[in-house]
Amino acid sequence: MPLYWTNEAIADRETIYDYIEADNPLAALALDELFTEQAEHLLAHRALGRPGRVAATREWVVHQHYVLVYDTSSADVRILRVLHTQLRWPGPGR
User: Fold this and answer.
1) Is the dihedral of CA 36, 64, 47, 44 positive or negative?
2) Element (H, E) at 59
3) What is the spatial distance between Cα 46 and Cα 90, in angstroms, rounded to a whole number?
4) What is the CA radius of gyration of the chain?
5) What is the DSSP secondary structure assignment for residue 42, as one 8-state letter?
6) Please, what sign has the CA dihedral across residues 67, 72, 76, 81?
7) Which residues does 24 contact at the CB level (< 8 Å), separation at least 6?
8) How does residue 76 score in pLDDT terms, banded at 50, 70 and 90?
9) Which tens digits make up the pLDDT trace of 53-75?
10) What is the pLDDT of residue 7?
11) Strands 66-71 and 50-51
12) Cα–Cα distance between 19 and 93 in angstroms, integer?
């Protein structure tokens, strides 16, 4: 089963990387690698984390400040977002 990153999740990773890289390039790289490693665990263990706040999703805290939101509605694993734990998810009106 393939692992996919949505455009939104890729944009989240880039934003996080750029923000951290400004102060600590090695930490930015390590965190981005952590996202990849943790997402790959989902290929074997789709039920990691907790049921998501959006239907047909799950949320897995992969770092004390970041959560992967992923889709469980198909055979594939789709990473929908990479969000800071302080961010309100889903946004207003959802």
Assistant:
1) positive
2) strand 57-63
3) 21
4) 13
5) T
6) negative
7) none
8) confident
9) 888 899 999 999 999 999 977 88
10) 98
11) unpaired
12) 28
Domains and CATH numbers, the chain: 3-84 (3.30.2310.20)
**Rounded to whole angstroms, what are the CA distances from 28 to 10, 31, 64?**
14, 5, 15
The whole-angstrom distance between residue 63's C-alpha and the CA centroid of its chain comes to 10
Distance, C-alpha 23 to centroid of its chain:
22
* Closest to 57 measured CA to CA, from 72, 40, 78: 72
What the block records as the tokens of 53 is 């706040």
Provide the sign of the torsion angle of the four alpha carbons 27, 28, 29, 33, taken in this order.
positive
Instruction: Judge if the upstream peptide bond of residue 51 is cis by omega within 30 degrees of 0.
Output: no
Q: Quote the pLDDT of residue 91.
A: 66
